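Figure 3 (text version): structure tokens given as input.
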């Protein structure tokens, strides 16, 4: 299944928005995957990433 994940993450002193399309079997797996990807790409902890919405892509 494909999911569209929208949220923000703390980059330095300001919050940056993101929108990502993720292929994952479940919504929980998509959440874990996006936290891992954003954390590794931007060197921020999971506690500094906020997911606003997860929608199933049509």
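Below: residues designed for each position.
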């Amino acid at each position: 299944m494909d999911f569209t994940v929208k949220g923000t993450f703390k980059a330095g002193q300001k919050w940056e928005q993101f929108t990502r399309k993720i292929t994952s079997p479940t919504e929980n797996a998509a959440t874990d995957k996006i936290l891992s990807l954003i954390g590794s790409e931007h060197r921020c902890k999971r506690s500094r990433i906020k997911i606003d919405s997860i929608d199933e892509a049509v």
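Helices lie at 27-42.
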